[in-house]
Amino acid sequence: MKNRIVQSLFFASLIAICSNTALAQPVNRGEQVNVALFVPSGAELLDFAGPGEVFSNADFNTYVIGFTDEPFTSQGFMKIVPNFSYKDCPKPDIIVIPGGGGSQFYKNPEVIDWVKDQCRDAMLLTVCTGALIAARGGMLDNLKVTTHYSAYDNLEKSCSNCEVLRDARFVDNDRIVTTAGISAGIDGALHLVARIKGMKAAKGVAEYMMYDKWEPTAGLVSKPAPFIEYAETNGLEAARQHFAADLQAGKKPFAGELSALAADLAAAGNYSAAEAAMDFCLKLYPYEVSMYEELSDLYKAQGKFAPPAQETFIDMLLSDKTADAVALFDKVKAAYPGWVLFKESAVNWAGYALGSRKRQDDAIRVFEMNVRAYPDSFNVYDSLGEAWLKAGNKEKAAENLKKSLALNPENKHAAELLDQLGSDDK
Questions:
Q1: 3-class secondary-structure state, position 103
Q2: Which CATH superfamily is domain 31-221 in?
Q3: CATH number of 310-425: 3.50.50.60, 1.20.120.420, 1.25.40.10, 1.10.3810.10?
Q4: Taking phi first (over 0 means left), then psi (-120 to 50 degrees means alpha), and beta for anything else, what does residue 328 get?
Q5: Mind listing the pLDDT tens digit for each residue in 269-318?
Q6: How do residues 213-265 score in pLDDT, each as one tens digit?
Q7: Rounded to 5 degrees, what angle do the CA atoms 203, 44, 202 make?
Q8: Do the bridges between strand 94-97 and strand 34-38 make them parallel or antiparallel, or are there none, so unpaired?
Q9: CA 426, CA 413: separation in Å to the nearest integer?
Q10: For a 10 Å CB count at each end of the chain, is N or C smaller?
């Protein structure tokens, strides 16, 4: 917990340091998950604020949508301004429907049809009496479900052949997750983060939120994801062959699902199968840093060389062991050439933090390491060029800023610094 708090304070201070500088932005890598919080007027505040806190802290692209984009009131006192209306929002990967304000959905059957249409591809998380909305659309028929205790009977009457569980914090039916009342939406959201990004990521979010009473097993997985269910019964390779067409079409299991499969295999002592599951996961999600950390745990359990977690590595960079950390990066790359030890943005922030502490030589070391890790990124050359400029080496500064512009001619920050260099030479 201490490291997470320190890291949060570090990022906050770094924002203050850089607030007046037009820094280039890191190249966007990996998977973006869009989460639409579909909030009607009168919605229970924690029903959507809780999941919103979880998903945003898991780095999901989280936004509020309404029936329109006009402001409305939540729970009788909180003014909410939607980011979008449901008609013009980014295509969601997850839709969250909170309790409260349900009559507005019932009066707008076309809105329920929109939710059903989106959920051909998106996942649905209902919180509290939000389950009644899904039931009204026939989405909960023949499923095990849950809701707020006050709505058990109503939900049971609202869906066909559904079984309402009265003692579960959440019930997962693969593409549809229902949760019990109010705070249980946090549990359901954490469960989805674990499925998508892995248990480590979910526990990190819960720790940051000080939601220390979260119990991942307090819900029920009623219907596992088909790929995982097949792999558990028939093996990973058989699942890959069976779902080859889906995989080819981009319909792939989540990284967290594969890491959970690997963890179960490792717990049974089948480390080779566990490593195969993680290797497959990293082929599908090559920039998911947390998955490399999961694989590192597997290596550690077998006595193999295990690279550190990103947070540990960043701590080394910021300490008086910067050179040792850079040497460790080279060791990891030699042992495991494809290994992603850190996010580009995390190390860039560390480099600027070192520069702000008047440790310019260490900052340059860190930015040079980031260039080796991400040689296709205009951003890392921009940062290295700026560091060399601050160190007084105009030749090195110009060399790297020109590389940045070659990769991205629209990078105004590098262009401005090069203009500044040219003016200085006159």
A1: helix
A2: Class I glutamine amidotransferase (GATase) domain (3.40.50.880)
A3: 1.25.40.10
A4: alpha
A5: 999 999 999 999 999 999 999 999 999 999 999 999 999 999 999 999 99
A6: 899 999 999 999 999 999 999 999 999 999 999 999 999 999 999 999 999 99
A7: 10
A8: parallel
A9: 21
A10: C
CB contact set of 321 (below 8 Å; sequence gap of 6+): none
Amino acid found at 322: T
- In the block, tokens 């049974």 appear at 268
Task: Give the number of other CB atoms < 10 A from CB of residue 2.
Answer: 6
Q: Among candidates 348, 204, 201, 374, which has minimal Cα distance to 286?
A: 374
Locate all alpha helices (DSSP H) within 29-162, ordered by sequence: 45-57, 102-106, 109-118, 131-136, 152-158
Backbone angles phi, psi at 378, to 5 degrees: -65, -30
CA separation, residue 323 to residues 58, 317, 364 (Å):
30, 8, 11
Measure the CA–CA gap between 113 and 268, rounded to whole angstroms. 45
Confirm if 261 and 231 have CB atoms less than 8 A apart.
yes
